[in-house]
Design goal:
FAD/NAD(P)-binding domain, 33% helix, 465 residues, alpha+beta, FAD binding, globular, FAD/NAD-bd_sf, single chain, FAD-binding domain-containing protein, seven-stranded mixed β-sheet
Length: 465
């Protein structure tokens, strides 16, 4: 009897889950309610789609394992994505000072528009597997608390039941999974929201001639100063463009008008972002999004869990996008699914529960990083810093300070922020020694740019007479 898997949602998490399932079942159907573009265009249902997205090393490595014979990195680079080495290609002002640029490259990340990334992943999965996409909206799960047996769907031709041996909910931030599980008899799942009121504002610029190798430039928010957070970033994307994304927490939201947008960049702790864009050619208006809260569903802690059903991506947890974790967490979750399927197939007893608990490991790491900082912003809703948060913040700040002038500390920070390893990396003896020793080099008074890069800044800067 042919085996069928159904995936709800054709976004990044859904397509990666479909790729993972394709080697274990005869048929994989991806349900998507929205019309999907034929190329790298923005689509409805992705509120953060027009803002900055970083694909970290851990997430990229997971993607490369999911479609046999395919290198996702090479496909993304061929489509116009940029590869950035954290050790050399990133200029970042942290609350503890400027990070240095080292001779060693460190982990790499990819930068591009979310539209390009989704399109490349979708096209790669469809070309390399027998996965097919069907326009339909999932209405409810079928089965019972012991096993999910399919999905009731609404299609242009009416409602019907779609039977399946395995179902994955990858429907994103708006998932109705808690309602669906309650209808099956599972109602003990806790949900937590931590909302710093972050607003993102993004504008696209033409990349200036001669700035092809200009580093990703980031001014981070300071969660510890007792004031609303403000941050800004310039990163290269496909089509010879710069994406400039600003973010402000409740009480310091970035404006939507072009003049206010520029003023906001110049009022950041360092004006480097504003100096760069003041003379660059804008290609779009300012786009704003407010769907930025951290939300986690503790599915792995349910007393019972139905066989044949797994939840991945934003349907499990969403994170403040300022930390660049969501896509990588989705990829790591799909990789957990793939690994468990290789061990025993879709009929392995307890498969779904093992996957859900495995997914929780990367979710927990990302949650700790995001919420551990967001709880310190004024007017945050859903949490307040406790004793443990004070201890973690104290150590984290010490480690970040050390990383401004210690290569050993910097590598530990890179490994964790790139999701190549978990937060326990910061507790290894070499990392702890680096944190205790502190920075070995003096603090930098200004961005660590080369002479050529400073020349580009001066040529673009329209803020000074």
């Amino acid at each position: 009897m042919p085996r069928r898997a159904v995936v709800i949602g054709a976004g990044l998490a859904g397509m990666l889950a479909a790729a993972a399932l394709s080697a274990s079942v005869e048929e994989v159907i991806v349900l998507e309610r929205d019309d999907l573009p034929d190329g790298p265009q923005h689509r409805r249902g992705l509120p953060q789609g027009r803002h900055a997205h970083l694909l970290m090393a851990g997430g990229l490595a997971a993607m490369d394992d999911l479609v046999p014979g395919t290198c996702m990195r090479e496909r993304l680079l061929a489509a116009g994505a940029h590869e950035v080495a954290l050790g050399q290609g990133l200029v970042a002002l942290t609350p503890e000072g400027w990070f240095r640029r080292w001779r060693h490259e460190g982990p790499r990340m990819l930068t591009c528009s979310r539209a390009l990334l989704d399109w490349v992943v979708r096209a790669t999965v469809l070309a390399g597997t027998d996965v097919r996409i069907q326009q339909a909206q999932a209405l409810e799960l079928t089965g019972d608390v012991s096993r999910v047996r399919g999905v009731r769907v609404s299609t242009p031709d009416g409602e019907r039941e779609l039977e399946a041996d395995f179902v994955v909910d990858a429907s994103g931030r708006g998932s109705r999974v808690l309602k669906w599980l309650k209808e099956l008899g599972l109602s003990d799942i806790r949900e937590k929201t931590v909302d710093a009121g972050l607003v993102n504002a993004t504008r696209i610029y033409r990349r200036p001639a001669g700035a092809e190798q200009f580093p990703v430039t980031l001014v981070q928010a300071d969660p510890y100063g007792g004031r609303p957070g403000r941050s800004g970033m310039v990163l290269p994307i496909e089509g010879d463009r710069w994406m400039v994304s600003l973010a402000g927490t409740r009480g310091s939201e970035p404006p939507t008008d072009p003049e206010g947008f520029l003023r906001y960049t110049l009022d950041l702790p360092d004006p480097i972002v504003g100096r760069l864009i003041s003379g660059a050619e804008p290609l779009t208006e300012v786009r704003v999004s407010r769907s930025t809260s951290n939300v986690r569903r503790y599915l792995e802690k349910a007393r019972r869990w139905p066989d044949g059903f797994v939840v991945l991506g934003d349907a499990v947890a969403t994170f403040n996008p300022a930390y660049g974790q969501g896509m990588s967490v989705a990829a790591l979750g799909a990789d957990v699914l793939s690994a468990e399927l290789r061990r025993g197939g879709v009929d392995a007893p307890g498969l779904a529960r093992r996957v859900q608990r495995g997914v929780a490991r990367s979710v927990s790491a990302a949650w700790a990083m995001a919420v551990g900082q967001d709880v310190w912003f004024p007017q945050v809703r859903g949490a307040r810093p406790g004793v443990a948060d004070h201890l973690v913040a104290r150590y984290s700040r010490r480690m970040t300070k050390a990383a401004t002038g210690s290569y050993r500390a910097a590598t530990a920070v890179w490994d964790v922020t790139s999701l190549a390893t978990g937060p326990s990396r910061l507790l290894r003896p070499d990392a702890m020694l680096a944190a205790l020793t502190g920075p070995l080099l003096p603090a930098l008074p200004e961005p660590p740019l080369t002479a050529q890069e400073w020349r580009i800044v001066r040529e673009l800067d329209r803020t000074r007479g």
